[in-house]
Amino acid sequence: MRKFATTLAAEIRMNLVEMLSYRFSFITDILIMLGLYTVIIYTDSGYRLTQYYSTSLDLMPQAKVIILLGYISWILCNAGLTVITNSIRTEAIKGTLEQKFMAIVPFWWLLLGDTLGSVIVALTEIALIILVAGLLFHTPILFSLSVIPPMLVSFIGMYGIFLIVGALTLRKKKIGQLVLVIQVLLLFISNVFTMLELPWYSNILPLALGNHIVRLVFLQLEVPLETVLLHLGTSVLWFFIGTIVFRFSISAVKQAGTIGQY
């Protein structure tokens, strides 16, 4: 158990050092995310969201907050997807991918450390975005610890999905265009900034259902027990499916002898 904690901490530390060394990229990410949030704010998506949840509170301030909640979840998942695919591609380019496979802990555990390091950086970016959004758009700076559990469950489930994408990266090495498509799709199909009705895929996509639960919790509305259990069950299922597919992909590239090919 100690080796898992030690390697996880080491991966987080190395990832933080590497990411914080590129300050220009850090600032650029903040500007891009803030720009995207600005575009979302100046549409009527927030108004439709507030109507969906039938809140009687002042529409615009409430709309901005519930949009921001979904946007935060999307940013965190976006960070997870990016770091998994980039880490695999980078290790393949450097020729150190096979060494990662021979570590004392599973490769997906090492990727989890990279992901958590990226999430820490993303949380810092989110904090700055919240402050700027409060100044520019008068978005109330509110925080509730009750939204953390559903966000965490969503991230666990999405991590499993991202491992499946990582498995494809192991086989094809370079799938940057596909990653971009997935990121954009998640922005539009995961109830991030608009939600006229709950589509069928919300029941199987952790981020979509998680955003719905987060908003219900934040607005202090009733959260059906079956919705919570469905969210937890699908997230755990995706996590295990992702780890299984990822381990299978590792075995496949080993047998094919394509680990070092790029």
Overview of this structure, please?
The structure is a single chain. It contains ten helices and no strands. It starts with a helix and ends in a 6-residue tail after the last helix. The radius of gyration is 19 Å and the shape is globular. The longest helix has 36 residues, at 59-94. It has 262 residues and is mostly helical.
What percent of residues adopt helix (DSSP H or I)? over 70%
Q: Roughly what is the average pLDDT, rounded to an integer?
A: 80
**What value does the Rg take, in angstroms?**
19 Å
The fraction of residues in strands falls at under 5%
User: Largest sheet at a glance?
Assistant: none
The end-to-end span amounts to: 34 Å
SSE run? HHHHHHHHHH
User: Count the strands?
Assistant: 0
Overall form = globular
SS class = mainly alpha
Unreliable runs, pLDDT <50, ≥5 residues? none
Secondary structure topology:
Blueprint: H1 2-20, H2 23-41, H3 45-52, H4 59-94, H5 97-101, H6 107-136, H7 148-172, H8 176-189, H9 206-218, H10 225-256
Helix pairs in contact: 1-6, 2-4, 2-6, 3-4, 4-6, 4-7, 4-8, 4-9, 7-9, 7-10, 9-10
Keywords:
single chain, 262 residues, mainly alpha
Gist of the model:
The chain has 262 residues and is an all-alpha fold.
